[in-house]
Design brief:
alpha+beta, four-stranded antiparallel β-sheet, two-stranded antiparallel ribbon, 6 strands
Length: 113
């Protein structure tokens, strides 16, 4: 299993100041192997809320995100699996639209609608 070296997150992904406590991340994955997929899902359940089968919303501090990325990188097969981490800035978070049976996920002082 080839594992690419990813650069460290020395700066928050959205350009925010390092003092920022947390940032919303959407983490999605397409993993072919059941065992690897289950391991990734269990790790992500400890860091956020599962909003769809292979999609999690996580409110993370930069240092937690760094550790999470390193842990996930060890679990996946970079030649077969696809795992994506999308940062959501406060403006994007406010513009989030949810349709159908999607539920609101509250964060102290914020509601994703």
């Amino acid at each position: 299993m080839g594992k690419p070296d990813l650069p460290a997150l020395s700066q928050p992904l959205d350009g925010a100041t390092p003092r920022r406590r947390t940032q919303w991340m959407v983490i999605s994955y397409d993993i072919t192997d059941d065992k690897r997929r289950t391991r990734v899902m269990k790790v992500l359940e400890g860091h956020g809320r599962r909003v769809q089968y292979s999609v999690f919303e996580c409110d993370l501090r930069p240092e937690v995100l760094e550790k999470l990325r390193a842990r996930l990188l060890k679990l996946i097969d970079a030649n077969q699996d696809d795992l994506r981490i999308y940062p959501l800035c406060e403006n994007c978070l406010a513009k989030t639209q949810m349709l159908g049976r999607a539920k609101r996920y509250e964060r102290a002082g914020h509601i994703i609608t």
